[in-house]
Structures are given as structure tokens and as C-alpha cells.
């Protein structure tokens, strides 16, 4: 099976300059392809493939204007063109929105380095050999396995830090998995992140004091940045210091990155706890997150819970350990069914946190009742 490992890297000044140049070139080529493909479609009515654009870029455009494009890795530039080509194809298929230009401040562009020679992407305890960059030091020692076959790597930049994602081929762990229980039903929500049928509850980390303090600090820094824009709106270009504004933007980026890392790490912790229980199957619900986001009072709280990331990471771990992942329909009334007698309570409101059955009279927590119904659901779709 293929598995990716992502960790932070420590670059020298020369490597940092070379990598910034590569990322900047990839962003420039991607935006150039998007603009050229738009004009080509308006004139001819057909899509400009990435292969045709690459030939025009190397044979015509580089010789006329920008020779510095060939100063960086050609594979990284080629991958940036293919990313733009894939974005247009997904748009024509109706899978994504229209491709937009990449901005430098968003830091969404990554540098791709494949393994061309046997000496490329060699992994040691504290370093990895990246094409055109040489040996790069890893911040976390021993995180990338030595015995794995490395296929490619991608280097990204976020909040003045650099991360490397390595794609490796490894042996599957399915033979190590021995089920210890029948199954687990997992009900995710806003009051608590997850309530499981085996009497394990995971709190909403966004309600903790640590997250609230970071959000309060982020709001204060955001207001400071906003005042900087307002004060310099009517000034001339040379009358204000752009370096101070860049420092403030970097402070905000670090706070955003820290909050994102804390939330995603908590999701990974919950998923690992579910997998370590060694169930025969795990049942989740297909949530309509896009429809839930239309409620402006709950949109922010729903976004912070990372429901989509929870589902994707749980799917990866279930495939890795050979656990069957089941998903019931979004119209399955998991909260309105009685887990004891099966009676349905249609008039259950969202404010009722305790489920009281009208038929058998059982009183049970609403979320725990939903997790039991998910565990014993008979109509589901297997995702693994």
C-alpha cells in the first residue's frame, strides 16, 4: 500500500532561496497556463492540454521572454502545468469550480520532486536527499521509515515553515488486525465531537480554554492588521512601511496554522483511538455538511469540527488495518429511533438532549442512542 509521511524540514539559506525560487516559478507557470487556457478556449472553443502548453512554453515562450524558468527543476514546473490541466478537466466534468489564479500570500503552490535516479530521495535517520536541493535535514528524526520505497516528495510552505510530504510504498497491516468487538457506531456532533456506542465520548476541543484564548488572540491581531490597511488606504506608496505589515501577516499565519494543527491532531487522536479498539466494523453517518453550513448561526462551529477530514482519515486507517467502514444514508433517522424497541419519535426537537421513548419509556442520552442505532443499522454502504 502507498502511504504519505509529512514532517517539517530545516533548510539552509541556500536551500531556502532555491526552494522559494522553485515555488515562485511554479506559481507563475500555473497562472500563465490558466490565463493562456482561458484565451485559447475563447478563440477556438477547445481545451488547451497541458502537454501542448508545455511544448509552447519550452520552445517559444522561454526563448522570447523568461529564461529564468529553466533555472529550477523542470519536473516541478511540469507538475504545476499538469495541476492546472487537471483543474480545467475537473471543471468541465462538473467536479470543481472554475480554476482561479494562485496568490503568493495564500501559499497554496507546492514544489514536486519525483525520483529520477537511484540516489534521489534517500532516507536516513535525520535527513533526506531531495533532487536539486541535496541533503535536507528533518526536524523529526526517524519519522520517515528507512525500509520503505520512496516514490516522490512534495515540499510546501506555510507560515514561514517548510514541510515535506513523502509518498512511500509499504506493506499492509491488515494481517495484524484481530477483531476484539462486534462493531462501533460513531455519532459526531457539535456539543461533543464524537459519541461512540462502546461508552467512549470525545469532547469538542473548540470549547476548551486553550482554543478560546488562541481565537481571542487571533481576533486581536486581525483587528491590528485591518487598522493598518485602513490607515494606509489614502497614503502614497512610499509613506508607509510594508515590512511591518508583512510581519503582522506572518503573525496571523502562524496563529491560523497553530489552530489548524491542534484541531487536526485531535481528529487524528480520535480516529487512532477508534482503530486501536480493533472493532469488526465502524459505522458513521453521511452528513450533509454543505446543507448544514447554510445555517449562519452554526456555520463557524461546523467548519471547526472538521467532519470531512474525520471521514477521510478514518477511511485511510480502516483500509490500513482491514476494518470495515460502513456509512448509512443521510436520511437515516438515527436520533429519532429508539435503540431498545425500534419505535420512531418524529417530533424530536434539537433542544431535547435526552431521548424518551413513547412506547417503552426508556430514557437515554440522545447522542448515545444515535450511536447505538448506527451500530445496529442494517442498511448501509461499505466504503472500504
From TrEMBL:
Q: Which residues form the Probable transposase IS891/IS1136/IS1341 domain?
A: 175-296
Q: Name one GO molecular function term.
A: DNA binding
Q: Which domain of life is it from?
A: Bacteria
What protein name is recorded for this chain?
Transposase
Describe the family membership recorded for this protein in Swiss-Prot or TrEMBL.
In the C-terminal section; belongs to the transposase 35 family.
The organism is Savagea serpentis
The UniProt entry, under InterPro entries, shows:
Cas12f1-like_TNB (IPR010095), Transposase (IPR001959), Transposase_put_HTH (IPR021027)
Q: Which residues form a coiled coil?
A: 204-231
Q: Which residues form the Cas12f1-like TNB domain?
A: 308-374
Query: What is one GO biological process annotated to this record?
Result: DNA recombination
Record keywords = Coiled coil, DNA recombination, DNA-binding, Metal-binding, Transposition, Zinc
Domain named Transposase putative helix-turn-helix is located at 1-45
**Residues spanning the signal sequence:** none
Q: Name one Pfam family in it.
A: Cas12f1-like_TNB
